[in-house]
Design brief:
The protein has 202 residues and is α/β, with parallel strands linked by helices. It contains 7 helices and 7 strands; from the N terminus they run H-H-E-H-E-H-E-E-H-E-H-H-E-E. Helices cover 31% and strands 31% of the residues. Helix 3 (49-56) runs parallel beside helix 4 (68-81).
Length: 202
């Protein structure tokens, strides 16, 4: 088992949903952009709040995470809600989503070392069908001054100019760095600096 999996299994192995049970605010705001019954890939899905929200809207979800503890919570909630979600236990460093498989890829506070993020983003873009959407929110390096959640390593945070380059070739429908209050469980609570992205594959 990887150090990443160990870290997240320990964090998720509690009864509470540490990032809350409600979906991410930005994802909820942007979800009307999705076509009905979209096939959606969610990266670093954790305990399942975002995948469950989209599955309840009728989308077909594939949720990937390195933590079996997180995915167990996701599947229990999905079963209770009567929705089907495909849960994939995988380290994103080795996960291959395939080519032109998904109508949308979701990345919500899925922070990775920059070298790995470049690889994962390239795979995510390749996995989008033509016209497919990438919906992403993550903390910027300015978040370090807030201290209200997220990694303490600036290399894992989203610098707008760098991310714009990583998404070259996609049409940026929404690309905003802003400060907003993030209230998502005990680990994301307070004012925060975030980058919000919606991009479309030609």
């Amino acid at each position: 088992m990887s150090d990443t999996a160990d870290f997240w299994n320990t964090r998720f192995a509690v009864s509470e949903f540490i990032y809350g049970e409600a979906p991410n605010d930005f994802l909820r705001e942007q979800s009307p952009r999705l076509a009905p019954a979209s096939r959606v890939l969610s990266l670093g899905e954790g305990e399942g709040r975002n995948a469950l929200f989209l599955a309840r809207q009728g989308h077909a979800l594939t949720a990937v995470d390195a933590s079996h503890e997180g995915l167990a919570k996701l599947l229990a909630r999905a079963s209770a809600a009567g929705v089907d979600i495909t849960a994939v236990l995988a380290d994103l460093a080795r996960f291959e989503p395939g080519e032109a498989q998904f109508d949308a890829v979701v990345s919500v506070f899925c922070h990775l070392p920059s070298a790995l993020r470049r690889t994962v983003m390239a795979r995510a873009v390749a996995a989008l069908k033509p016209g497919g959407l990438l919906i992403m929110e993550g903390y910027t390096p300015r978040q370090l001054a807030f201290g209200t959640g997220g990694p303490k390593d600036a290399d894992m945070l989203l610098e707008a100019d760098i991310v714009r380059g990583e998404l070259a070739g996609l049409e940026l429908l929404h690309f905003v760095e802003r400060e907003r209050e993030v209230i998502e469980g005990s680990y994301h609570t307070g004012m925060a600096s975030v980058l919000q992205v919606v991009a479309r594959k030609p």
